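Hi everyone,

Forwarding the result from last night's run.
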Amino acid sequence: MITVLIRARAGQPVEHLGITLTSLVPAVVHGLVGDAIVMARQADEAISHVADAAGVAVVPDSGSAQGWRQAAAGARGRWLLLLEAGDRMEPGWIPEAEQALLAYSPRLARLRRRPASLADRIGQLVSETLAPRALTPGLLVARDELMAPALAGSVRRLPIAIEALGRA
């Protein structure tokens, strides 16, 4: 089962969080996603309201790789999917993710994010080229692997697309 960690950025419209949570509902019904945790740098009443309505926890976020690890400490799932508020899972992702989890090797997989802007796309390409194991949105990783001091092993690319709305 997957726990989804969603990083909500300051200044983002709260609707972005709602879009991400809504796109996960079919996977919850299917039994693939068991829970979600919203990470927020600042206490925000709107984020708390949306998260509470969806039945997900909100935890403080340092904005760094350590923030992902701190949020993962409260995860129930064996696998973690890292997303950013505004990411929308595209149809057909559930069977692909199930297949990847059943294979269980490698223990790191990267989903294809479709950035909202050219600048976001360039940043994504640089990040994925220089640090393919970086803790960034779009990573599907075994929880114990994420909790290790450094991610090891190869990163498998999955044919799963995420539409990224971008930053506000």
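DSSP finds six helices and eight strands in the chain.

Cheers,
N.
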